[in-house]
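In response to the reviewer comment on reproducibility (Comment 2.3), we provide here a single inverse folding case reported in full, input and output, so that an independent group could reproduce the run without further information from us. The C-alpha cells appear first.
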C-alpha cells in the first residue's frame, strides 16, 4: 500500500542555475515550456541562468520554485511513482494543489505568477521583512510581539520552537531585541515582504478576485490546509482556504503532525533544496524522506522506489 506523501517547498529554496541540469531531461523540459507559455515569462532563463540576486525577487523566485517542483513531479510520475497525500509550504501549497488535481497546470501557473506580482508590489506600499526565531514557542513569540505593540506577527510555525515572524521592516530590529531578550535566537531572512501578515490585506483581496476566475476540482489525493493542517475535501473548501492563504500564518508543525496521524510512513521533497527535509527530520528523526533537488538525487530516489516496488511485487507473487 502506498503511504508516501510528497512535500513541496516554498520561497527561499531557490538557488542560481537550480534547473540547468534538469533541462536536459525531456519530461522536465516539456513542463517548463508549458509554464513558460502559460505565463509568457522566461521561466527557462529564471531556473538556468538568472543571477542569484535577480532570482531572489519575489515574483521570479515563486514562479521558478513552482516550475521546478512541477518538472520534478512529472519525472516521478513518468516512472509511475505517486503519493496518497501532498502538502506544500506556503508557495508550495500551489504545487500540492496542482499535483492533487485541484488546479490544472495552466491555471496554477497563472495564479503563482499573479501571487508573486502582488506580493512584490505590496512591499512598495509598506516595506516588509521576515526573521526566524529559534528556541521559543509560538505562544511566547506571540506574547512578546503583542507586549511590544509591534506590527510583526508569527508567519510560519515550522517547528514547536522555530517560528518565522513577519511584518514592517522598520520594526524588525525592535522585534529582534524583544525576542532575544526572551531567550530566542534570531536569523534574518533575505526577503523584502511581510508575507503571511495583515499587511498584505489589499493584495489578498485582489488575489481573491483572481482566484474566482479559476476552476477548482475535487482533490484526487489528500491535501492539507497550510493554516490549520486539516484535510481539504471540496473545491469550494479549497477555494475559500486559498483566499486566506496570503495573509494567514503557515502552521507547518500542524501539517506534519496531521500527516503523522494519517499513517504516512515515507516522504519525498519534490523540488529544489532540502528545507522541508530538514524540518521533517527535526520533527521526527527516524522518518524516511527522499530529496529530489538535483538530477542525481532525483534518479537515486526514483531507482530506490522502483526497486522497492519490484521487490514488493515479487514477494506478493511468492505468497
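Designed residues, in position order:
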Amino acid at each position: 500500500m502506498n503511504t508516501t506523501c510528497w512535500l513541496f517547498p516554498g520561497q527561499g529554496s531557490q538557488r542560481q542555475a537550480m534547473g540547468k541540469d534538469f533541462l536536459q531531461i525531456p519530461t522536465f523540459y516539456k513542463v517548463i515550456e508549458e509554464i513558460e507559455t502559460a505565463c509568457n515569462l522566461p521561466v527557462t532563463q529564471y531556473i538556468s541562468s538568472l543571477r542569484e540576486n535577480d532570482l531572489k525577487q519575489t515574483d521570479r523566485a515563486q514562479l521558478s520554485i513552482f516550475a521546478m517542483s512541477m518538472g520534478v513531479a512529472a519525472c516521478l510520475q513518468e516512472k509511475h511513482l505517486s503519493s496518497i497525500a501532498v502538502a506544500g509550504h506556503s508557495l508550495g501549497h500551489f504545487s500540492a494543489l496542482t499535483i492533487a488535481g485541484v488546479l490544472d497546470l495552466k491555471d496554477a501557473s497563472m495564479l503563482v505568477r499573479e501571487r508573486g506580482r502582488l506580493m512584490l508590489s505590496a512591499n512598495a506600499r509598506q516595506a516588509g521583512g521576515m526573521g526566524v526565531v529559534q528556541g521559543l514557542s509560538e505562544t511566547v513569540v506571540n506574547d512578546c510581539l503583542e507586549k511590544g505593540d509591534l506590527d510583526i506577527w508569527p508567519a510560519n510555525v515550522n517547528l514547536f520552537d522555530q517560528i518565522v515572524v513577519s511584518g514592517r521592516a522598520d520594526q524588525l530590529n525592535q522585534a529582534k531585541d524583544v525576542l532575544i531578550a526572551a531567550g530566542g535566537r534570531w536569523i534574518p531572512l533575505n526577503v523584502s515582504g511581510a508575507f503571511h501578515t495583515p499587511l498584505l490585506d489589499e493584495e489578498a483581496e485582489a488575489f481573491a478576485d483572481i482566484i474566482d476566475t479559476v476552476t477548482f476540482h475535487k482533490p484526487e489525493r489528500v491535501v492539507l490546509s497550510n493554516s490549520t493542517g486539516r484535510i481539504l475535501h471540496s473545491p469550494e473548501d479549497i477555494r475559500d482556504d486559498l483566499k486566506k492563504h496570503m495573509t494567514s500564518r503557515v502552521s507547518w508543525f500542524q501539517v506534519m503532525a496531521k500527516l503523522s496521524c494519517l499513517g504516512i510512513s515515507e516522504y519525498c521533497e519534490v523540488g529544489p533544496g532540502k528545507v522541508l527535509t530538514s524540518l521533517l527530520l527535526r520533527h521526527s528523526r527516524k522518518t524516511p524522506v527522499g530529496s529530489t533537488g538535483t538530477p542525481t538525487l532525483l534518479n537515486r530516489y526514483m531507482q530506490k522506489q522502483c526497486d522497492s516496488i519490484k521487490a514488493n511485487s515479487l514477494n506478493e507473487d511468492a505468497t
